[in-house]
Amino acid sequence: MNVRRIALRCLLPCLAGLLLCGAAQAQSCGVTATPLVFSNYTSPGGARVDSSAAVLVTCTPAYLLLACKTSYTLSLSVGGHAAGAQRQMAAGAGRLAYGLLSDNLRQQPWGDGGASGPTTGGTITTSLLGLVCLPGNRPHTIHGRIPANQNVPAGAYSDSVVLTVTY
Questions:
Q1: What is the DSSP letter of 2?
Q2: What are phi and psi for residue 16, nearest 5 degrees?
Q3: The pLDDT of residue 25
Q4: How many CB atoms lie within 10 A of CB 74?
Q5: How far apart are CA 161 and CA 108, in angstroms?
Q6: What's the Rg (C-alpha) of the chain?
Q7: Residues of the chain with pLDDT under 70
Q8: How many whole angstroms separate alpha carbon 142 and alpha carbon 36?
Q9: I need a labelling partner for 41 at 20 to 30 A (CA). Which of 3, 63, 76, 155 fits?
Q10: Rounded distance between C-alpha atoms, residue 137 and residue 128, angstroms
């Protein structure tokens, strides 16, 4: 009878260690994106111009209770030429307003969680190989729009926006 109790006492701490800690694997995430490039805008009074960019979030979840799962948020800065929460591209002194949106209908602003709009996010769930979580990824799309009827000087307009993944 003593042998069984000792074996059981030894097995429970070992199992608890595996379920809670696993193989001491750290959670990590990264993000890549293609450039968002708009076609030519006609001024004055031009029609709106839409474009999009692909975003790929890649995470290796931490192992916890036999699960491999990571939740994250993606935020976009207002850019280098914003007027308050309004993103703007610049060409010299010229400013061309544009928006970055998270939905196909281009109605939901994508921002930094403040005045520029809400963040977007997701969850990546992967499987185990032994006691190690495999990496996984999830695609997102940034939808861009230049509103119609802007009067701006001719030029090559650009802006830089920082995409941040928080997990």
A1: H
A2: -60, -40
A3: 56
A4: 20
A5: 17
A6: 24
A7: 1-26
A8: 8
A9: 76
A10: 15
